[in-house]
Amino acid sequence: MAKSLNEQAHSGIHGLHAYVPGKPIDDLKRELGLTSIIKLASNENPFGVAPAVKQAFAQFVGNGAHDLHRYPDGGGYALKQKIAARHDIEAERVTLGNGSNDVLELTARVFLGPGKNAVFSQYAFAVYPIVARAVNAETRMVPALGAGADMPYGHDLDAFLDHIDEDTGVVFIASPNNPTGTWLAPQAIEAFLDAVPPGVVVVLDEAYLEYQADSERPDSRQWLERYPNLIVTRTFSKIYGMAGLRVGYALTSTEVADWINRIRQPFNVNTVALYCAEAALTDEDFVTYSTQTNAVQRASLAGELEARGLICLPSQANFITFDCGRASTPLYQAMLHEGVIVRPLESYEMPEHLRVTVGSEEDNRVFLAALDAVLERE
Ligand code: PMP
């Protein structure tokens, strides 16, 4: 008897659901009869693409995009050299990805599989369980810190240790974490790295690192020498405003980079993205502007939300997650009709929380006005 497609799809992914993308903004505008919509739902850079990237992109097109008929540089040589110089690390210890999501998936494909388990926190980034289950590994969710803790909803690293056993392949931690915005003290990360068995890979996801205050930011580079099992992931999507171009990278030991390169598709980062990411690294002014503005706007937005009696989770990222004190999906829907897209966190089992990206001063004003209008109608 022939098997059904349902039977053929492996057991690890049966409980997963396909990612439901938001509607394109222009379609939404038409549907809702709105002239403008502000999207504060995906933690993107509200100031757009870094100017150096725009310039590089224009230059690329101006040069007739002459080499687009060729495959990209499969080793990403030039970009890796620049990233390596920035982190004072050997270039062979940099692995590029089609966004840092790609690096997370590559990690799972190397170090997880049937019979192995992946450990991550409750309220952690949704991609960790997906990449683990995609390779038929078990997923172990560690209960997060309680609502009354210093870092409510944050990672409980002590509890992580209780979930790690001889079948653990990868542990995912994020600082700052999405969707909570919570972070880990550098000393806590270091103590954790000391306590994790050396054969267990620890992914330290630093997608939002640039948004942390200098005093809170770990220097994870130093740990890479001491912990060959550490994978630090970074992205060009946020601080450089390059989410649409898809470039991220991992910093690792030579050994881990070698394992990943054995299965990495050679052309996982495209030619335009490689070219633009190199340019991004020269744009320190944009990084400084984005981080400083984010810090000011984040504090102001948190203050405004708290003034409305809404409790915010502590955030060192470019978004704020707050407790609405009622179901957040209807609030999100009502705000959509006001022309502001935010992110309800029902799928993260935080049904009363909304996540809002910290926008420009004007974006935040519009967001607060929409929120007020919606709350007033209740
Ligand atoms: N890690 C975290 C914690 C994230 O929030 C995101 C993006 N939402 C990523 C990784 C992946 O980002 P990208 O693939 O765009 O680099």
From TrEMBL:
Pathway: Amino-acid biosynthesis; L-histidine biosynthesis; L-histidine from 5-phospho-alpha-D-ribose 1-diphosphate: step 7/9. Pfam families: Aminotran_1_2 (PF00155). One of its GO terms (biological process) is L-histidine biosynthetic process. Its cofactor is pyridoxal 5'-phosphate. Homodimer. It comes from Salinisphaera shabanensis E1L3A. One of its GO terms (molecular function) is pyridoxal phosphate binding. Its EC number is 2.6.1.9. Transmembrane segments: none annotated. The lineage of its organism: Bacteria, Pseudomonadati, Pseudomonadota, Gammaproteobacteria, Salinisphaerales. This is Histidinol-phosphate aminotransferase. PANTHER family: HISTIDINOL-PHOSPHATE AMINOTRANSFERASE, HISTIDINOL-PHOSPHATE AMINOTRANSFERASE 2. Residues 36-371 form the Aminotransferase class I/classII large domain. Keywords: Amino-acid biosynthesis, Aminotransferase, Histidine biosynthesis, Pyridoxal phosphate, Transferase. The modification N6-(pyridoxal phosphate)lysine is found at K238. Belongs to the class-II pyridoxal-phosphate-dependent aminotransferase family. Histidinol-phosphate aminotransferase subfamily. It catalyses: L-histidinol phosphate + 2-oxoglutarate = 3-(imidazol-4-yl)-2-oxopropyl phosphate + L-glutamate. Gene3D superfamilies: Aspartate Aminotransferase, domain 1, Type I PLP-dependent aspartate aminotransferase-like (Major domain).
